[in-house]
């Protein structure tokens, strides 16, 4: 690789970091306003017009806040844990395209790269709990490990279903395959599996079982403060945006929209951004609507429902492709599986 190419890649990574920082600030403001409206409140209104500078004020406060560290912590692991959570969440954006030609590096095995790096954050969460010398932090770290390992299976199988359907693991190729019909209309079961498993991966409500304040007082982050806690906070919101972006790319046509030129970078970025923020709003809406699951309910949902459904989804996809059935048949089978699942849940409850 030449020096010019290395310089371009370095500039691209720097621009990506700055963009993600702005995205995180916007997401914190948007979440507070959304939850405020759901709870019949105004949300942030004091700092800046409509509270737009509240997230900036909070970021300055966290960076300037005194960083208190307990005396019994394992210092090397304590410092390493936030980076182990943040770096994988940042690196997955290297191969996520926001338009056809707007990507740091387009990879033929992009989906494999994203899945491989996203699972590494488990190491950081367990390390944070173990190194904090706090029993609640250790419990939260073990909860995080159990939850993330369990829900990795359905999210990987949902991605595998899309790769089978598109016959490619290149995200640009997956989006181009949806030029006529987005995959949400062909594979609604896959979209549902990815949404639920993705929320569990990020630890968002109703799957926020490892930082549960009412049970483990904040989970693996309990002994972190100031800038180090802010790194965990930054990684959580980047991962939330990653899940929303992947849903857009895998199931909602990415930067493509009927009547708009998909090969124009500016148009593609705007379409992709609007779709992604709409999916983020859905995630915030779920947080403001559903209560937190108990740990036994969360594990049962993963192993007894989502894991079997994800394997059934892949088998159905394989049968559909092997026999060359029309696409509407796959839609009917996915809708039928969703209907049977909800019927079974209703009968059981």
Give the mean pLDDT.
88
What radius of gyration results from the CA coordinates? Answer: 21 Å
Count every helix, treating DSSP H or I runs of 4 or more residues as helices: 14
The largest sheet, given as strand count, sense and whether it forms a barrel, is: none
> How much beta, percentage-wise?
under 5%
Helix % is over 70%
Instruction: Give the H and E element order.
Output: HHHHHHHHHHHHHH
Shape: globular
Distance between the termini: 59 Å
Brief overview:
With about 350 residues, the protein is mainly α. It contains 14 helices and no strands.
Describe the protein.
The protein has 349 residues and is mainly alpha-helical. The protein is 71% helix and 0% strand. It is built from 14 helices and no strands. The chain has helices at 3-38, 54-64, 75-91, 110-118, 121-131, 135-166, 171-176, 183-186, 188-202, 213-216, 226-251, 265-289, 295-323, 327-348. It starts with a helix and ends with a helix. The mean pLDDT is 88.
Give descriptors for this structure.
14 helices; globular; mainly alpha; 349 residues; single chain
Topology record:
Layout: H1 3-38, H2 54-64, H3 75-91, H4 110-118, H5 121-131, H6 135-166, H7 171-176, H8 183-186, H9 188-202, H10 213-216, H11 226-251, H12 265-289, H13 295-323, H14 327-348
Helix pairs in contact: 1-2, 1-11, 1-12, 2-11, 3-5, 3-11, 5-6, 6-9, 6-13, 9-11, 9-13, 11-12, 13-14
